[in-house]
Amino acid sequence: MSETSLPANFQLLIATDPAHYDSFKGLLQEYAERDLADPKNSSIWRDMAQLPGRYAPPHGQVLLAYRDGELAGCGAFVASLTPSLAEIKRIYIRPHFRRQGLARVLTLALAEQAHLHSFQTAGICTWAHNAAALALYQDLGFEPIESFREPDKAHLVFLGLPLAQPD
């Protein structure tokens, strides 16, 4: 994983053991309590109960971000209903680490990891009112695509980024 574009003193770690998934679960809980737009209808609760579940390799992966040893944020990708598309999700940056470029780095690192796992497209979805996230994703090259989720999620904005073919 390329760390040249990481903001100062940040490190990314691929989750590989139960302690990493416990850290991820803690961040998901924090995210659900602070920022989740529709907690009642979210799959986050099932995800937390079944970790590592769909986030485990080879069909998923979790990245944890640290700054000077302190857990700063997370993100993940999972296989989607479209076999060649990895869904990037659960990008969460703790409030005091925001506005430092970490969400950008996590998104790009997750796309890179999805590519290394032979996915051809990185997909992401968010609420239409999440202007900051939409601006970031579009700035990274994500473009509107058809829904890659269940039909009842059609109210979300779906974006995709083609990934280079594996070498």
TrEMBL record:
Q: Please identify the protein, giving its name as recorded.
A: N-acetyltransferase domain-containing protein
Organism classification, top ranks? Bacteria, Pseudomonadati, Pseudomonadota, Betaproteobacteria, Burkholderiales
Q: Which organism is it from?
A: Rhodoferax lithotrophicus
InterPro entries in the cross-refs: Acetyltransferase_Enz, Acyl_CoA_acyltransferase, GNAT_dom
Q: Which SUPFAM superfamilies does this one have?
A: Acyl-CoA N-acyltransferases (Nat) (SSF55729)
Which one Pfam family would you cite for this protein?
A: Acetyltransf_1
* Domain (N-acetyltransferase) ranges: 1-164
User: Which PANTHER family does UniProt cross-reference here?
Assistant: FAMILY N-ACETYLTRANSFERASE, PUTATIVE (AFU_ORTHOLOGUE AFUA_2G01380)-RELATED (PTHR43305:SF1)
Q: Which domain of life is it from?
A: Bacteria
